[in-house]
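Researcher: I'm preparing a figure for a lab meeting and need a structural model of a single chain. I don't have an experimental structure, so a prediction will have to do for now. The sequence is pasted below. Please return the structure as tokens so I can convert it later.
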Amino acid sequence: MDVTTTAGPLRPARPEARTGLHQQPFSRRHPVLWRLWRRKLGLVGLAIVVLVVLIAVFAPVIAPRDPYAQALTERFALPGTDGYPLGADAFGRDILSRLMFGGRISLAIGLSASIVALGIGVPLGLLSGFRGGWLDSIMMRLVDMLLAFPGILLAIVIVGALGPGLENTLIAVAITNIPFYLRLMRGTVLSVKELAYVDAARAAGASDLRIMRTAILPAILPYVIVAFTISVGWLILEAAGLSFLGLGAQPPLPEWGAMLSEHRQYITIAPHTVYIPGFMILLVVVGLNLFGDALRDATDVTLRDS
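Model: Understood. Here is the structure written out token by token.
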């Protein structure tokens, strides 16, 4: 029998109508990714960083020349010279190849130092903020002592005591970044540990270690990720500054700061040997900061609808 209504024949219900499930928009299913996607400058920064990382990783395959090979007949070749897209340095070495291999060193120092600083600063900040009392007072006084010195000056003192070299540069820039993580995590924990779900976990008989691991650490994890993203750029710049002063990477290593240091006396006769490495440092640091700022905004719960 044909079943009809005044509005027309009955139609089968759609699957989502039968199940009562409706497809949620992307902004509701993944709010952090949605807010990050809407911040175009952050995506530009991410694209820059990803591109530089890929070039550095595949440098042995895509580099046009050996970064250490010298060709004295091509000294100070200008950008665009046949076989030297970005020119040559004072020893006839290909600047493009040295930038590619130098990215491996600069990025490795920034990432490694940030990981070391995070691995020390975050647990100490978590413990200091959660326990409080005399432990918090001692840690904060130590942090105040470290912050009393400019970061680059403290790094120079540490490298001067340990001796120049990549390993000591990594140690120095990591130490100077520990107070940043410690103070940031302490402040974040102080605001989180008074929330209701933390009190509920404490009332349920959970130990302090379990509360820190299961209740507080997941809440502060977005702040840790954002801080890590931003600090990598700072430490790349700081390591480059030490290499520029002759305390970091030593020639002939193609580290960006060392490339600047090697050719600073030639800036008037071959400015490209200084400007190009300097521009690469600027590009990576700006890219990391743009992405870090966008990630900070995307994870900020107060900007949920922006």
